[in-house]
């Protein structure tokens, strides 16, 4: 992996947050050039603007910004996994021709839409609770 990378993730997603916690723990010691930014944090706007993403775009897919390039989906995971010593094997596996096609399809057609739908449901529930005067 070359250069610095910033992982943009949906911190309001419990599944995403748990996965990122694993990556962040490993990156602390082994990959100091990897930064993690929660796109739902109040101060995330500059990171999103720099990446050319809206908050909704960022919540739809996993993104990594590497040396000014914005990557999403499987390509973003491959960049992150390549930076983490214990995950490099998965990056190498994920780029094999047949595996890449299958993994990208599963992420694009199943995982990302499902996680985004759950995100939208959480937002709707929060808005409903707020409209009813609940925290």
Structure description:
The chain is α+β, with helices and mostly antiparallel strands. It has one domain (5-131). The chain has helices spanning 14-30, 45-51, 55-60, 74-83, 88-94, 97-131, and strands spanning 5-9, 34-38, 63-66, 69-72. A 4-stranded mixed sheet has the order 2-1-3-4, with helices on both faces. Helix 4 (74-83) runs antiparallel to helix 5 (88-94). It is globular, with a radius of gyration of 16 Å. The N and C termini lie far apart (43 Å).
Number of helices: 6
Major sheet attributes: 4 strands, mixed
Mean pLDDT rating: 92
Secondary-structure element series: EHEHHEEHHH
Q: Please give the share of residues in helix.
A: 55-70%
Global morphology? globular
The N- and C-terminal alpha carbons lie at a distance of: 43 Å
Number of folding domains? 1
> Given the helix and strand composition, which structural class is it?
alpha+beta
Number of β-strand runs: 4
SSE layout and pairing:
Elements: E1 5-9, H1 14-30, E2 34-38, H2 45-51, H3 55-60, E3 63-66, E4 69-72, H4 74-83, H5 88-94, H6 97-131
Helix pairs in contact: 4-5
